[in-house]
Specification:
Blueprint: H1 7-33, H2 48-61, H3 68-94, E1 96-97, E2 107-108, E3 112-113, H4 114-141, H5 144-188, H6 196-202, H7 209-226, H8 231-252, H9 260-266, E4 271-272, H10 275-279, E5 287-288, H11 289-293
Amino acid sequence: MFLGLSWYFILMDFYLYSFFGWIYECSFCSLKEHKVINRGFLVGPLLPLYGFGGTIVYVFLRPLEPHPSLLYLGGMLLATAIEYFTSWGMEKLFHAQWWDYSRDPYNFEGRIALVPSMFWGFLSLLAFDFLQPAVSSIINAIPYRTGVILLIVVTVIAACDLTYTVISTINFRSQLEALYHFRDELVAQLEEERFSPLRQAIFSKIHTQNERAENFLKRLEELKANHIGEDSKLADIEARFREYKERHAAFQKKNPFFGNKRIMQAFPTLKFIPQSVHKTGHKRIAIRLKDFLLQTSENEHFEK
């Protein structure tokens, strides 16, 4: 027992909130983007952030149920704290910021913001009035022995999912770091003034990578025509750019439900922190993944 609730009830509560949170997030984001999106860190239909948030709010804030204003404030603060430390912990583990509120008003470090926090408060009221009674009804409707078996099965599956997701996320991060490092090496070859059109092409504000690649190769052909005697260096640049293009395409062509593409769709505001930047002595900064893959800017790399 914990605060008057059995661990059986708490675990069932956690998994049901995780499942319903996954349904909400997937439905909202899929309708918004007009395509099916599997939201959340795990591959399976569980979103633990909602599970932890919903369960912890219910377990600890039950004494505030008769006082809606205090329940709203407590739910807002408790859920916001969970969101903040989840973001902080995942950044430390994977060197990435998985969601970003930096463009929202009154945000703190891009991890939390006023409007989402207010949403958590309203969700807490909704949970006590409607969601928790429904969840409790589902739990009570399941025979205890059947529930125990379900908990064991779901926990084993969730543990396997978590293991797979952690491994694939580490692999995702390694590929991203290698791609970033390879592009930096390519950019280093373009430091000469005569290569400025090529450098501008790499960082051009073009909507698709294919259009940017075509623009780069077009400018490269123009340079070849004007520097006939220096084909060897231009040929090397062309070869490295084509390799970079292939790596870039391969990175984004992973399975949309299990690989890199799923992670990018699930976390559209994801930012990564290049380890190569840290090693150079510059201050570590987070780079928006979408900007890096589609619309980068030449001054994105460092903060002095």
